[in-house]
Here is the input.
Amino acid sequence: MMGVPFEARPFAINWHFLRQTKEVMDKEVIKVRGGNRLCGKVHISGAKNSVLKLMAASILADGTSTITNVPNISDVHMMAEVLEHLGAHVSPLQNGRLSIDASKVEPKETPYDLVNKLRASIAVLGPLLARFGEATVSMPGGCLIGSRSINMHLDGLASLGVTNELVRGNIVARTKLGTLNGANVRLPFASVGATENLMLAATRAQGITTIENAAREPEIVDLANFLIQMGVNIVGAGSPTICVYGAECILPVQEYKTVGDRIEAGTYLVAGALTGGPITVTGVCPQHLLMPLRKLREFGCHCECSDDGVDNSSITIRGIDLKEGSTRLKPTDIQTLPYPGFPTDLQPQFMVLAAIANGSSVITENVFENRFMFANELNRMGAEISIEGHHALIKGVRNLSGAPVEASDLRAGAGLLLAGLVAEGTSIVNKIGHIDRGYEQIVDRLAALGADIERLTL
Ligand code: EPZ
Here is the structure.
C-alpha cells in the first residue's frame, strides 16, 4: 500500500491487495549515501502516539468527530480500518484532517489479524466498554521490543467492575452490572497504554476514577484535552494522578488538533546533531523535549528554542562541525524512563550519536526488555556496541560504514536511516514498512534537508 497517497487508499479491506502490498513493502528499500551535511527546516507532523488514541476515543460518542494535524502514516490507516471494522465511517485523510462518524459503531470482535498489525488497536477496549458495557478484542501478541503485556490494563479495568476472560485468543470483557463504577486505581508502572484505556473507560463510569502513578506523556494530556472537549471532566493529566469524573453524556468533537510529534522531532534533531546542521524543527512544543535537548547538549551540540507556546515554536540544532575535523561528539550516558525521563522511543536514534562519539557511553533501557536489537545492525555498520542485560556499552568509533541493514521496528528503522546519513558509502535499509508506520514522508523530508536518499523497489 506504500506509495499510494493515503487519501486514495480504499478503506474496504482488500485482502489480496494487502497481501500483494505486503510483498511490495518487503521489497521496498531506502538507499542512503552518507557524508552530506543536512540543513534546513522541517515542519513536524501530529503525534502518532496521540492520534491513534484520539481516533479510538471518537467511538465514545454517537456522532462525527473531526481530528486535524493527523499524520499520513500507515498506522493511521490501520486504525481507520479497525474503526471501520467496528462500524464507524472514517473519511479519507485530506490535508491532515480526518472525520470519524461513530454513530453506527457496535461492540463487534476486533480480530487478531487487525490487532496483530496494529497493537495500538487495544485502545478500543476502554471506549467500547464505556459506551456498550462490553468488548471483544484480540489479545495483542508480543513484539520484537518486548512482551508488551496488558495485565495493567485488565487489572485496572477490573477495579472499575469489568470482568474479562480469554476465549480463543480474544479478551472478552464486560461490565458486571452493565455499568462501570469509578474506583481508585494505582498502576504498578506508569504505563501509557494502561493509563489511556483506564481514562477512556472511566469517562462513563459512575462517580470518580482516580488513576495513581499515571503516565505523564504529552500524548496523555492530548487525550485528556480531547475527552474534555467531549464533555468529560478530567483533572491532573500530565501529573502522576489523574481524576476522571464519569459523564452522563459524551459528545463528538467538532475539531481537535493533534499535538506535534516529539519523537519525530527528536529524530530530525539527531540528524542535525550527526551531520552538523543547522536543522530547525517547527510544529512541536520544545517543552516536550527537555530531556532529549539536555542530552543533545551533553553530546556537545548547540540547541536553541523559541517557545511562544503556540504554533510558532521552533528548535534549532547545530552539531559538532565534523566536516572541519573539529572535535567529535562527546560520549554521553542515557537512561530511558517514563516521561519526563528520556523517551525510550528516541533510544535507537541517540545510540547512533554515541556510536560515533569520542569515547564510551552507556545506554540503559528501563522501559522495554528487548529494545537493543538495533545495536546488532549498527555493529554491522562498524559500531562497537556490547549488550549486558539492559545496558548497552557503546565504544565510539570515528566512522561507520554503509551496509545493507534491516529495520526490526519503527524507531530502529529511523535509527538506521540516521546511521546511513553519516556512514561512509551507501546503506540499504530493508523492511522499511516499519518506518512508514510512524514517519510521514521521511525520505522526502531528509532529501529536502540535503540527504542523498531515495526509496527503491527491488
Ligand atoms: C506506548 O506503548 C507507545 N506506543 C510506545 O511507542 C512507547 O514506547 C511506550 O508507550 C512508552 O512510552 C503507542 O502509544 C502506540 P507502556 P505502550 O504501556 O502503551 C509494560 C513507538 O515506537 N507493560 O507504557 O504499549 C510493557 O511491556 C512505540 O512509537 C506491562 O507489563 O507502552 C513495557 O515494557 C513503541 N503491562 C512497559 O510496561 C501492561 O499492562 C511500557 O509499556 C502495560 C505495559
In short: The longest helix spans residues 262-275. The mean pLDDT is 92. The pocket of EPZ is lined by residues 48-49, 52, 120, 146-153, 189, 191-194, 344-345, 367-368, 410-411, 438 (CB under 6 Å). The first strand starts at residue 28 and ends at 33.
